[in-house]
Structure formats: structure tokens, C-alpha cells
Amino acid sequence: MNNFINDYFIPNEYFYIFLLNRVETEINYKGVEVKKTREYKHNLQSFNKWYSKFLKMNKNHNWDIYFSINPFKEDTNNRYEINVNSYKSLFFDIDLDGEEISKKIISVLGQSTYTIRTSEDKYQLIYQLDKSFKGSFEELKEHKEVLKKLTYHFKTDNTFDLARVGRIPNLINNKNNFEIKYKNNNIKYDIKHFKKYIEDNNIVLPTKTPNKVSKTNNSNKVNKVYEDNVLYDYIDYTKYLKSYNYFKKYNKDLSKVDFTFIKRWKNELEEDFENILSVLRYCRSDLMTKHGHEIERYILNKIEQS
């Protein structure tokens, strides 16, 4: 854990450590029971002071611990996309057919900077840039678009948002008591490397978000880190809440309201799973209670149907 973080970040970068408790719950600001979460902003100096405490929380108190893939601005107090300071790495989270898909990605993009095995057949591949890109929020979103295209191309999990977190190696995955392993391959890339692959293979975003069908029983699928209810500064949640409540007046079936709402706003939200999830969670307090175990499949189905 300590070696990985100290290798991944440099002293002047600020990053978030996100914690998710697999056992304990709490009541959120909407009065809904959710899994207990915490997050703390650090630089390397402060992280190393907290290191032993995080280690104890992971091994003795059921906390899963994640780190932000990208660094954040020094003066920010929340993990919103708008507060990301630079684009550091491309990140692939592979929960389905992990070994097969990770080998496929590596065979065409080259060896990843870090190969992280988070469960028996689940992997995270991190392709770190040789120089972190700093720019405006719009410029950072252009880098995000590169990963977004590759994510859909390789059919990995939708983990392209700038505020994304990944599992820290050398800790315990408290979902299944798996010891997270990793390999540092000591290679970094220029963003042009990935843009060239996209151009050479004519990769474009799908006109509709593809429906992902799991090979396992989705009712047994444990939800990923969607419990933190990320809010994005570029989204006007008040506007969407007003719209959602309007549709709700005419239909008591909230599943149908979700469908109508997504159909109305999906283009403005760019059919982006993370954006739609964030808005729906803000508008509908029981969304995770009803669909938490299959939230990704639920929303992608609604997008596809609309």
C-alpha cells in the first residue's frame, strides 16, 4: 500500500483516499440507509502519517480503501470532477472476464504501467502518462474522451470519469478476503499513443450506450463503489430534480418515471452512465435501495430502451 502510493504520486500532488465499509451503515443527508463511507484529501507527507491507521482499518475493521486516479487541486474540499487538477493515467477496471480482457488490452496497447489483480478474475490496468496533463476542465475532458472510447471499445467497466477511484494494492479486498496484488512494469506513455490506436482503428463512441450482460447471475453481483453518491459541479441538479418531480406527479411507478426522465435528458447528459446515475440518485432517494445490487444493468437498460 505505502510503496504503491509513494511510487504513483509525486510530493506536490494532492489526491483522495476513499474508504467504504463493507459491514457498517449510516443514514445519508436524504435519510436513506447506505454503506458507511469516508474520504480524505492527502499529499504524500500526510498520507504517510496516516498509513498505519489506514492499514489497520482495512485489516481489522472491514474498510475497503481506494485512491483517486487523478490528482486534485490543493484548495478543493470535495472529490468532484471539476476539482481535478491534472490527468495522470488511463484506468481500466475489468470485472468480467478479467484475465482474458486484460491480456487483450495489453496485447494491443502495450504493457500497463501497473497491473493490479483485485480478485480472482478481476483486474485494474493503469497506463500512466509520462507527463501529467494540466489544463482547463474542458481540456481535461478531452483526455477523458480518449479513455471513454477505449472503455467502450474493450467493453470494460465504465470507469472513465475524472474523479474515478481505484483499489490500493497490498490490502485486503473485504468483499471476498482477497489480497490485492500488483506489478509495477515501469513504463509510461504519451497520450498520442492511445489517440493513434483510436484513429488507426476508427474507434468512435456508440450512438447508444451498449447493454452489458453479465455471464453470472446479476442478482448476486455486489455493487461497485457507487455508494459515495458523487456530485459534479457542472450539473444543475435543481433543474433535473424539478423535471423528475414533474414526471412523478403523473406516474406512481418510479421505474417508469426513471425511463421517462432518461429519455428526456439522456442526450444532454451525453448518455453517460456516471452522469445519469449521479442525477437519478439525487432525484430519487430510494434508487440504491431498490436497484443497488444491479444499478449498472438497470440504468444501461433504461438508456438502451429509451
UniProtKB/TrEMBL annotation:
Q: Which domain of life is it from?
A: Bacteria
Gene3D superfamilies on file:
RepB DNA-primase, N-terminal domain (3.30.70.1790)
Q: Where is the RepB-like DNA primase domain?
A: 76-188
Q: Which InterPro entries match?
A: RepB-like_DNA_primase_dom (IPR039459)
- Give the protein name, as stated in the record: RepB-like DNA primase domain-containing protein
